[in-house]
Structures are given as structure tokens and as C-alpha cells.
Amino acid sequence: MANKNWILMVTAQTPTNIAVIKYWGKRDETLILPINDSISVTLDPEHLCTTTTVAVSPSFESDKMWLNGKEISLAGGRYQSCLREIRSRANDVEDEEKGISIKKQDWDKLHVHIASFNNFPTAAGLASSAAGFACLVYSLAKLMNVKEEQGKLSAIARQGSGSACRSLFGGFVKWIMGNEANGSDSMAVQLASETHWDDLVIIIAVVSSRQKETSSTSGMRESVDTSPLLHYRSKEVVPKRILQMEEAIKTRDFPSFAKLTCTDSNQFHAVCLDTSPPIFYMNDTSHRQVLLLSCFSVLLITTL
Amino acid sequence: MANKNWILMVTAQTPTNIAVIKYWGKRDETLILPINDSISVTLDPEHLCTTTTVAVSPSFESDKMWLNGKEISLAGGRYQSCLREIRSRANDVEDEEKGISIKKQDWDKLHVHIASFNNFPTAAGLASSAAGFACLVYSLAKLMNVKEEQGKLSAIARQGSGSACRSLFGGFVKWIMGNEANGSDSMAVQLASETHWDDLVIIIAVVSSRQKETSSTSGMRESVDTSPLLHYRSKEVVPKRILQMEEAIKTRDFPSFAKLTCTDSNQFHAVCLDTSPPIFYMNDTSHRQVLLLSCFSVLLITTL
């Protein structure tokens, strides 16, 4: 470690995921613990994804990060949680080719540089933070030779952005809300792999690539505080839908899958509207798309 | 009654009413019995109103009606209910000046002609059916010398259009959902007269005067059948809001009145969105208006 000129890098690519039973509302803001289970489909990494390179060098004087080429602050609690959790699990790293040897205890003194790129609009409702934090945690874990299994990594990514935990698996993924106060059992599990339902195609129609007017974080906080309907949804509606959705995925039952996805997405938007002041994530164009989809579902249900 | 040339007419004017705690969902489609109480403000009859003239003559061969100058069918159950209920309560009518004498039992053989005009867009979300049926029932009751008190008349108007029962009173009106299976106790009561809160001004901003894509009748039927949130709203949310709104009206507490009105309107739209297929009664323009109003309420709450 005397020579300060070496640099060690890891690059990873992580797709975004789209919830089919929605996550909306936290019971713990710091640990990011949700008020209900959720289920998502992880997209093909060839399409919407984040590519992150993490680098470590004794010449780096502080942790730094660039998002889409622009430096951003790592001071926020969410970045700090992920960095802290990964660092605390770091192990010895040997790169014989480069002649680099990092001891477990060295990681506390070393700084990282992180460069992250999204190949799709950021903060526009396409789960950029999910892909971003999943990729950050995964690439840092690789760099630091963390040996945790994927589920444990997902619980770390969750502390960056809730839905990020679901992006650490391909295919169909369930985020189990968990019961523990410390969040240790709030993590993602894979329900079915990406090969399970090969002919399922997801089409993303970008209605607007502008940044959302209300971030998910503040939106769900306001919903938890003010929407009477959200609490009924999380306690009474979602648990039943989770079981129905697991069954629909297992049996590749497209009519049920499509119907549940549409109704749950609409209910999420309904809860946003029940929030004070109300949150509108849809506009006239997305209204028309949703109505078109409703017609399709009905068609599919009656013809399949 | 031998001379067939006489004609007797009554003209009445009834304002529309705007619900501040919304009616959405019936427990009986035929009798029009709601799943929750609602509260409305009756507008000034100088502004949005229906003007209806009802005429009776032995020369009329059938009941007929014209709405905004265009003949419409009276065959529907709702018109038939109102006509039947009023006819069954008709009394002797004497017009000495014209030399007309109608006996109670004659009304079953006489036919009426009805001409109704709205001075505002019909079926565009401005409660035209409320004003229309209230005016129809009121003018028929006058013509046929019906002696029922206003509350009983409101229960008849309710069978034409639920919210019509509220337009038979001025000021602040509550439609009590009632418990009886025959609907006899589902009627309107006046909470406070039009003079109670003199400086309250209601501004109606017409975003679109096009007819709604989903009628209230079929919309609320679909919500009752498919929205899990509606049932929670009607059972758990509305009863509390009714009490809060009664208190806000009684004490002329504008911040509470405005806040409750906005949140309940938004929750009604939320339930529409939770319906399958979803119902959208708002567009981008009304979204902007709602957000502007939210800001105003907040301002008023903090400054008053």
C-alpha cells in the first residue's frame, strides 16, 4: 500500500424494475422499511439499465460520485448507509496481476470514486434510483470482495432506495416487507427467473421525460401522513393481491397478471390523489394510455 | 272537464347544488339509495339553475318532455318514478279565474307536458340532473297541489336523481342515507339556510363543457362493483367527515370547510381511479386548478 499510483475498478450493469404490485409508503424512513410487500418484474439489462464503475485508489482523498457525468453529493444518509454497510463487510482483496493487496482493515481508510450512467430518463418514474442503488451496492460489493448472498445485499440496496432491493434479481421479484424493527428481514426474493415466462414482453411508453414534480420519497411520506385510503390499501388490499399475483406469475396466467397490474397501478395513483395536497403522476396522455390498456386487458381476458 | 281547450301551467326555477362531502355509490339502484350521507351547498338560483314549466290539459294525449328545446323520452324508470309518486299524492285543483276544476281522481287520466331548460352545460359534472329532477318534482307538486312537506318531496326527487333531493333546499343541505329498505328515510334536510354564511362565495370554473364520457349512474355502479377503496371510504372515512363538515358549517370555519371540501373531492376522484376500468373526470387543466386550490387552502389555514 506504499505505492499510491494503483487503481482498482469494477464495472457493473443493473436493470431497472417495474412494480406490478406497488410499493408506496414507508413505516421507517431511515431504514426504508415499507408498509406492504411488493412484486416487480426486472427488465432486460440490454434495455433500461444503470452502468456503474467504482474505483478505489490510495490517491483518492474522499468518496466522490458522478451521475450521468455530473458530480453529485454523497453526503445524504442513503449513500452513507450503503457505503457504511458494504465497507463493514469488506474483505481482503488480492490482484496478483497488478500487484495490489488490500487488507480487510484498509478499506476504512480508502476512498472510492463512483461513476454512474442511466441509459433512460432519471427521476421520471422509471425507477432510476432502483437501478442506481442496486448497481452501486453490487459493484461496491464486488470491489470490496463482500461475500454476502444476494438477499442480504438486497437489504443493503434497500437502504439506498426501497425498490432497489428488487433490482438485484432478474425475473419476478418480491420484496418482503419484514417484521423486524432493524429491517434485517426486509429484503427481496426471486419468485421466478427471467426464463420462466419467456414470451412476456414489457413495453415502456415514455409520456414525458421531465423530472417528476414530487419525488417518490416526499410523495409517499405525504401519502402516509394524509391519505386514509393508503392504510386500508396496505393492510387489506395488497396482501390479497400479492397472493393472487404470485399465483398468476407461477401459472403464467396473463389475463390475471395484466388485470392485477393495471388495477394495482391505478390504485397507487388513486392513493396519490387521496393525498393532501394531491399528487398527480399522470397526465391526459397517460390517462388515454391507461384506458387503452384497460380495453386490451378486457379483450385478452375474453379471448384467451 | 268537458271543455278540452283549457291548459294549466306552473313554472319553477331550481338551482344546482355542489357536494362538499360527495355522494358516490348506491346501495339500491332503483330507489336510488346511497352508501353514505353527503353534504352540499345549493347555489344561488340567479346563477346555475334549471327552469321547468309543467302544463296539464285534457287535450294532451300523452306525457311529454323537452330538455333544452329537444324532445326526450319519459319512458325511463326515473321519470316514471317521479311522475307516479307525485300523481299518487295529487289533490283537487281549482282555478276560479280560468274556470278550471280538477278532481283528485282526474289526475290519473290527465297528461302533462314538461319543458325544462338548463342555463349551464348539461351532463358535464355540474349536477344538471340534480337541478332538473328537483325542479320537475317541485313544479309537478305545485301543479297537482301536492301537500307533502319539502323533506318528503326530496325523497321523491331522489328517485329521479340522487343528488336532486339536495336541491329542494337552499343553503347547506345534508342527504341522510337512511336505513329503511323502501327508502322512506333517505331524504334531504337543511343544515343551515342561505343566509347563514353570507360572505361565502362559490366560483365555478368550467374546464370543459363537453358531456362526461362516463355518466354518474354507470360510473358509480362500476365503482361499487370494482373499487375496494370505495367501501372503506363510505363506511370509515365519510361518517367522520360528515361530522367535521357539519361543525365547520355551523361555526363558519372556512379553513376546515375548504380543507374538507378539497380532500373529499380528491378522494372521490381517487375512487374513480380505483375503479376498473378507471374513470377520469379530471384533465391536465383541472389538475392545475386543484393544485392551485390546495395552495390557497394552505395559505388560508396559516393566515386566518
Automatic annotation (TrEMBL), chains A, B:
Q: Per the record, GO CC terms?
A: cytosol
Q: Where is the Mvd1 C-terminal domain?
A: 202-294
| EC code(s) of this entry | 4.1.1.33
Query: Any one Gene Ontology biological process term?
Result: isopentenyl diphosphate biosynthetic process, mevalonate pathway
**Record keywords: Lipid biosynthesis included?**
yes
Ranges in coiled-coil conformation: none
Q: MF terms per GO, please? A: ATP binding; diphosphomevalonate decarboxylase activity
Chaperone among the record's keywords? no
At the top level, the lineage of the source is: Eukaryota
Q: Which reaction does it catalyse?
A: (R)-5-diphosphomevalonate + ATP = isopentenyl diphosphate + ADP + phosphate + CO2
All copies of the Diphosphomevalonate decarboxylase-like N-terminal domain together span 15-188
State the InterPro entries in the record: GHMP_kinase_C_sf, Mev_decarb, Mev_diP_decarb, MVD-like_N, Mvd1_C, Ribosomal_Su5_D2-typ_SF, Ribsml_uS5_D2-typ_fold_subgr
- Protein keywords: ATP-binding, Lipid biosynthesis, Lipid metabolism, Lyase, Nucleotide-binding, Steroid biosynthesis, Steroid metabolism, Sterol biosynthesis, Sterol metabolism
What family is it from? Belongs to the diphosphomevalonate decarboxylase family.
- The name this protein carries in UniProt is Diphosphomevalonate decarboxylase
The species this protein was found in: Aquilegia coerulea (Rocky mountain columbine)
